[in-house]
Design brief:
Number of strands: 22
CATH class of the largest domain: Alpha Beta
Radius of gyration: 25 Å
Largest sheet: 6 strands, antiparallel, barrel
Shape: elongated
Strand order of the largest sheet: 14-17-16-15-18-19
Oligomer: single chain
Number of helices: 13
């Protein structure tokens, strides 16, 4: 048996911050990772570029977090975006601010971020052990005593669970931390993939596979009622829909699908034009290009690969000339441009989800320290907590801030 001041389980962004902060405060820290190397999931964030954080103010940031971002206010007041950026810059990572308030390493390599964090914890003498599977939390009289790891007891009165969620399980986040939390008496809100592509009925998406659209508006309809919308970029795939605005709306869609509600998604291909202005545009185009075939006229309205699919949905003969289009047909064209609709029948698995929705509910965790309200000395950080956010650096900042706070609590021992 060996004694440590702090044990941290999971060497991702939350775990690294927890371990580093506890070591800064003088703690003898052991960081346990079940994979053969730390930070595997961090390396694939932001498509390998690592969207570190976001420039949003705290009051704006919490609006992007579900189910209730207010829980994070205390964590953010103690460690926020400028703090993680300063820490990374101290270890040689220059950053670039991009659209949407997104911060990336200037070198566009997630490895630069991981290397900086590893250098930081290394200087602080954090001991990192990989290939370590935690089998059990050692608890006595509602007080954490340590961990059973690979058959060996390791003792500590301060344990941080930062094992990640269930998304991208190949990187190590396979949900084991939630089982440990349950064994300690915690409840776990239903785990669902979030920021995940969705599966559509029919073959329209498949026919448009590979087509990316910019500046479109997507609206989610649940049981016929408008439930949410977003504006930006999206992508058609062989199974359905993906891309930034689809991922952002996916949490809502997945939640409603799990409730067995009817979920539809409509795409407004011309959000800058209301129906009246779009109708005038169509009348003008059809009049000015009256002798052109309708398929050619559509080139000014749609991406080339979308035109045959569009004509098929409308049941329009591509050889028909502009002046032959009836007012009824023009209305159908206008309506489809404003409301290309898909039935959402499912979603992709955790293997393709960027983040996990669900986890240990915040009502069971102290917002001031991230300590369990049930077991003294047990702390949670990152995706273990029932908190998830949109794309844009929000989820990594949650991991950094909650991890730092869990490590910061060591000084109270």
């Amino acid at each position: 048996m060996k004694n440590y001041d702090v044990l941290v389980v999971g060497a991702g962004p939350a775990g690294l911050l927890a371990a580093g902060r506890a070591a800064e405060l003088g703690g003898k820290v052991l960081l346990l990772e079940k994979m053969n190397a730390p930070g595997r999931k961090l390396l694939i964030t932001g498509k390998g570029r690592c969207n570190i954080t976001n420039s949003a103010s705290i009051s704006e940031f919490v609006k992007h977090v579900k189910p209730d971002g207010r829980f994070l206010r205390n964590a953010f007041s103690q460690f926020y975006s400028e703090d993680i950026l300063n820490l990374l810059q101290k270890y040689g990572v220059e950053v670039t601010l991009e659209r949407g308030g997104r911060y990336f390493p200037t070198g566009n390599k997630a490895k630069d971020v991981l290397d900086a964090l590893l250098k930081w914890v290394g200087e602080l003498k954090v001991e990192i052990r990989c290939g370590q599977k935690v089998q059990k939390l050692l608890i006595e009289n509602d007080q954490i005593q340590g961990l059973l790891v690979n058959g060996q007891e390791i003792l500590s009165k301060h344990v941080v669970l930062a094992t990640g969620g269930k998304s991208y399980p190949a990187t190590g986040s396979s949900g084991e931390g939630f089982e440990l939390a349950k064994a300690a008496g915690h409840s776990v809100e239903k785990l669902m993939p979030a920021l995940v592509p969705v599966v559509t009925e029919g073959i329209i998406a498949q026919k448009l596979q590979g087509l990316a659209l910019k500046n479109v508006r997507a609206t989610v309809w649940v049981n016929g009622k408008k439930a949410g919308e977003d504006f930006g970029e999206m992508l058609f795939t062989h199974y359905g829909l993906s891309g930034p605005i689809i991922l952002t709306l996916s949490r809502l869609m997945v939640t409603e699908i799990e409730k067995r509600n009817s979920v539809e998604l409509s795409i407004d291909l011309k959000p800058a034009l209301d129906e009246q202005k779009l109708d005038k545009r169509l009348i003008r185009d059809l009049n000015e290009q009256g002798k052109k075939k309708v398929g050619n006229i559509f080139r000014g309205l749609l991406p080339a690969s979308m035109i045959p699919v569009f004509l098929e949905i409308l049941k329009l003969d591509p050889q028909k000339e502009g002046h032959q289009i009836t007012s009824k047909e023009r209305k159908q064209i206008r309506d489809l441009l404003k409301n290309l609709r898909f039935n959402i029948r499912g979603h992709r698995s955790f293997k393709e989800a960027i983040i996990t929705a669900g986890g240990v509910p915040v009502k069971e965790i102290s917002p001031k320290t991230m300590e369990s309200k049930l077991i003294a000395g047990l702390y949670f950080a990152g995706e273990m907590i029932d908190m998830d956010a949109e794309t844009g650096g929000y989820n990594l900042q949650i991991a950094f801030s909650t991890g730092w706070l869990a490590g910061n609590a060591y000084r109270k021992q």
